Amino acid sequence: MQTEETTLDKIRNRPRFKMFTHLSKETYAENLKKYLAEHKGEFSGNINQEIATICVETEYDNYWKPRLSLRTEIEDDQTVIRGVFGPSSAVWTFFMFLYFLFSIFWMTFFTMYYVEKQIKSFEYPWALNASFVMLFCIAATYAAARFGQNKAKGEMRKLRKFAEESTLQFEKKI
C-alpha cells in the first residue's frame, strides 16, 4: 500500500511547506495581494515578488505572535513557494540565546562543582546550587516558549487557512 502525501498534509504536520506552481512570481504576488485585500481586517502583511509576511490582526500583540512567511523562488525553470509558520526571527533568536546562555552557565557551574569535589577544595560551595538554578532557568525558558505556542494556536489555525485558500489552488501537480 502506497500513501501519497499532499502539500496540505505537509502543512498540517510541519511548520513549513514547499510547493510548485504554474504561476510566475509576479502573478503569484498579485494574487496574494488581492487575497489579502479581500480579507482586510483579519490579516495584515507585506507582499513583494520575493517574500511575503502575513500576520493575523488581533487586539493584542504578544511575544509569540505567529507569522506566515512565503518565499517565491525559481528552481529548475519552475516557480517554487516555500512557506514557514512561526514567530518572528527576533523571538527565535532571543529564545536560542537564552538556551545557549543558560546551558553555558550550567556547564560552567557544574564543572566548578565537579572539580572542587575532585581536588577536595571548598572555594565554591555555591556552584552546585547555581547549576540547579540554571537548570530551572532552562526549564522556565522552555515553559515560556510552550506557553506562547499554546496561546498562538488560534492564530496558527487562521494562518493555515490563509495558506490553504490563497496558495494551494495554484499548486502544480507533479
Q: Could you name the key traits of this structure?
A:
single chain; 174 residues; alpha+beta; Alpha-D-Glucose-1,6-Bisphosphate, Chain A, domain 4; 2 domains; five-stranded antiparallel beta sheet; 5 helices; transmembrane
Question: What do these coordinates show?
Answer:
- This is Transmembrane protein.
- Keywords: Membrane, Transmembrane, Transmembrane helix.
- The chain crosses the membrane at residues 91-114, 126-148.
- The protein is α+β, with helices and mostly antiparallel strands and 174 residues long.
- It has 2 domains: 7-86, Alpha-D-Glucose-1,6-Bisphosphate, Chain A, domain 4; 90-150.
- Helix content is 52%, strand content 20%.
- It has 5 helices and 5 strands.
- It has helices spanning 7-13, 25-38, 89-118, 127-151, 153-167; strands at residues 16-21, 43-47, 51-56, 67-75, 78-86.
- Strands 1-5-4-3-2 form a 5-stranded antiparallel β-sheet.
- Strand 2 and strand 3 (51-56) form a beta hairpin.
- Helix 3 packs antiparallel against helix 4 (127-151).
- The model has no long low-confidence stretch (mean pLDDT 85).
Q: What does the average pLDDT come to?
A: 85
Strand order of the largest sheet: 1-5-4-3-2
Order of helices and strands, N to C? HEHEEEEHHH
CATH architecture of the largest domain, by name, is 2-Layer Sandwich
Computed structural class: alpha+beta
| Domain module tally | 2
Shape: elongated
CATH topology type of the largest domain: Alpha-D-Glucose-1,6-Bisphosphate, Chain A, domain 4
Determine the strand fraction and express it as a percent band: 15-25%
Percent helix, as a range, is: 40-55%
Summed up, the helix count is 5
Rg, rounded, reads 23 Å
Q: Flag low-confidence runs.
A: none
